Automatic annotation (TrEMBL):
Organism: Phyllobacterium myrsinacearum
Major facilitator superfamily (MFS) profile domain boundaries: 1-390
Record key words, sorted: Cell membrane, Membrane, Transmembrane, Transmembrane helix
Protein name: Putative MFS family arabinose efflux permease
Molecular function GO terms recorded: transmembrane transporter activity
GO CC field: plasma membrane
Signal peptide start and end residues: none
Length: 396
């Protein structure tokens, strides 16, 4: 069977679910690599002789380079086969992990995180467009949910295991432990992904054209506010748990495991219920996750209450990605790679700003101020989204 197609058609009548699973593992490793510093923030700061807020910028620097890579990669890749681009991005993630694990000082750590940012931006810019080519149109939400199942896996196990193993073996050992998994994923990509030839060269004009569509621009800003709210809180969750909830490392690991395992429920729900008109669902992530952050501010002194709140936050976090990427696939189907580049740039920019602003509030004021900033961003997102109808293509 000839699996090569044009950019506007699927790979073939049979969905390439093995390739989708390979991408799901890559997502798990990307999420684990990107946000592992969250569970290791305090020991990393101590080991590198930096403040907690400064070490939080290990996440913001990867976000900065991810923004740049996401805007450039689809154009820079030209007519390169998208399979080889994804393989190259995974190889870059492997290199990044080695650099971070062996970093002798804070500056080298930042270099390793910058390399990871390039990988993040490049992979995510292409991911949704590739999924749209791997499966029939009716299966895209299901395939997206499966791919983002990797996010749930990472959220469930990476942070608690990272926190636990980091306390026993040191934070460097945690990053070293990820390298053989990424190496195996690299081989799986080469075997499972079909050839994905680019039938036409992407350019910045297509991106600018999308930004002139009011519904898409509104959606992009709303997504930025939603993710910005989420990661202003999540990046500095460990300091909050230590200072306000008063947990030790073992309890922190359990709470992070609760948060992560709840992500499986969010992924399942998104795969089952996200289809057709997504407008009513668009404000749900900001509403629930902002409410969870507010709940932590009010009841975060109780370990039991914090556990219940983090479970709801974790379920909504994984569902958020499926909801917004389904919105993108439905409302920018004529330019999926350009739309993917803009979405990834917007999301990574919001993660970057969340880490920067949250770190400044933490170092300059208190962890409570950081969480209040998260709630404010969520409220702005909810106000912009409204019923969601103004973010749909049919309402231009």
């Amino acid at each position: 069977m000839d699996i090569a197609t044009t950019s506007n058609t699927r790979i073939g009548p049979v969905a390439a679910w093995g390739a989708v699973l390979s991408m799901a593992l890559c997502v798990a490793m990307l999420i684990a690599s990107e946000f592992m510093p969250v569970s290791l923030l305090t020991p990393m700061a101590e080991g590198l002789h930096a403040t907690t807020g400064q070490t939080g910028q290990a996440i913001s620097i990867s976000g900065l380079f991810a923004v740049a890579a996401s805007m450039i990669i689809t154009t820079a890749a030209g007519t390169l086969n998208r399979k080889m681009v994804l393989v190259a991005m995974t190889a870059l993630m492997l290199l990044s992990l080695v650099v971070v694990a062996a970093a002798p000082n804070f500056a080298v750590l930042m270099i390793g995180r910058a390399l990871l940012g390039i990988c993040i931006g490049g992979f995510w810019a292409l991911a949704t467009a590739v999924i749209m080519r791997l499966v029939p149109g009716r299966d895209v939400p299901r395939a997206l949910a499966l791919m983002y199942g990797g996010q749930a896996i990472a959220a469930a196990f990476a942070a608690p295991i990272g926190s636990y193993l980091g306390d026993i073996f040191g934070w460097r050992a945690v990053f070293w432990a990820l390298t053989p998994i990424v190496a195996g994923n690299l081989v799986w990509h080469m075997i499972a992904l079909p050839s994905l030839p680019a039938s036409q060269r992407q350019n910045f004009r297509t991106m600018f054209s999308l930004l002139t569509r009011p519904y898409f621009l509104r959606g992009l800003i709303a997504a930025m506010l939603s993710w910005g709210s989420a990661f202003t809180m999540f990046t500095y969750l460990r300091p909050f748990m230590e200072q306000v909830t008063g947990v030790d490392v073992a309890t922190l690991s359990i709470l992070l495991l609760v948060l992560g395992c709840a992500g499986f429920a969010g992924t399942w729900a998104a795969g089952r219920f996200v289809s057709g008109n997504v407008a009513p669902l668009l404000r749900l992530p900001a509403l629930l996750m902002g409410g969870c952050t507010l709940g932590l501010l009010l009841f975060g002194g109780s370990v039991a209450a914090a556990g219940l709140i983090l479970a709801l936050w974790g379920a909504t976090n994984t569902a958020m990605s499926v909801i917004w990427m389904t919105w993108m696939s439905q409302n920018a189907a004529d330019a999926p790679e350009a739309a993917g580049s803009l979405m990834v740039a917007a999301i990574q920019a919001s993660i970057l700003l969340g880490a920067v602003i949250g770190g400044l509030l933490l170092d300059g004021l208190t962890i409570v101020a950081t969480f209040i900033g998260s709630v404010v961003l969520a409220a702005l997102a909810i106000g912009l989204i409204g019923s969601g109808q103004r973010l749909l293509k049919s309402d231009r």
